[in-house]
Amino acid sequence: MTRLPVWLAQHLAGLRVIALLTLTVGLVYPLAMTGIAQAFGNRAAGSLVQVNGHLSGSSLLGQNFTDAAGNPVPKYFQPRPSAAGTNGYDPTASGAGNLGGESVVDTLPTSSDPKSGSQGLLTQVCARSKAVGDLEGVDGSRPYCTADGVGAVLGAFRANGLTGNVVRVVSLNQACPATPFVQNYEGVTVECATPATDYSAALIIPVRGAAPAVPAVPADAVTASGSGLDPDISVSYAKLQAPRVARERHLPLERVQALVSAHTTGRALGFLGEPAVNVLELNRALDRES
């Protein structure tokens, strides 16, 4: 019997391996996994939510409930903030804001370019808390926030750099002609901040203020999730919104609260995380109720 050349035998062996792997990994395995996934029902298809035959979203992904101008629609429960994409909740731009606890000073926009500025994490939290408080009719104040919803941060200049008497104080996140949130610091009049001015030599001093230790607006109402796509809110945030939704929909508050309870999931495995409320499913249940 004639033996095949070594190089040809090696190529044929490689082709057989490719064919076998293509069949098992490219066809048999995907089909098997798809078949097993069907046991999980709607979740295998992305947990899609249909309303009157039209795709409304996925219960696994958060979405905004806002009008054309980006304002919250009062009759709907609102999700937590999102840093995914320009308007939030963009699945193609999933991610966090990547700002940490030391992000307390804003870059103030100039008059010639109003879009040139950027907010630090503290001002983002303060602004969101104030907006939620205004929407829900509660006290939106938080520690280290000014009444106008920016980070309450002073920049103090001392005579000898890090030591000596304070010779100048600037409210770093309040652009002129704003009135600083405090008038004096260590006997020195506080100034408003001038955009595009270098204040890097100042000592950063966050001011706690008189806000309550436990704010009325819960933490998940003012902070974005790591993915930016979290579909859930805390039970406390849902309870905060319930009176507004009941009022807008002319429903008894007790009925809205019952729907919140019905769409609340417990801790994973009974001990991981906190109970949460799925915003999309709750809002769709309210639409059916109304």
Automatic annotation (TrEMBL):
Principal localisation: membrane
InterPro entries: KdpC
Gene Ontology CC, one term: plasma membrane
Top-level taxon: Bacteria
MF terms (GO), sorted A to Z: ATP binding; P-type potassium transmembrane transporter activity
Keyword Nuclease carried by entry: no
Membrane topology per record: Single-pass membrane protein
Region (Disordered) residue spans: 72-121
Cellular localisation: Cell membrane
PANTHER family recorded: POTASSIUM-TRANSPORTING ATPASE C CHAIN, POTASSIUM-TRANSPORTING ATPASE KDPC SUBUNIT
Function: Part of the high-affinity ATP-driven potassium transport (or Kdp) system, which catalyzes the hydrolysis of ATP coupled with the electrogenic transport of potassium into the cytoplasm. This subunit acts as a catalytic chaperone that increases the ATP-binding affinity of the ATP-hydrolyzing subunit KdpB by the formation of a transient KdpB/KdpC/ATP ternary complex.
Descriptive protein name: Potassium-transporting ATPase KdpC subunit
Native organism: Nocardia africana
Lineage: Bacteria, Bacillati, Actinomycetota, Actinomycetes, Mycobacteriales
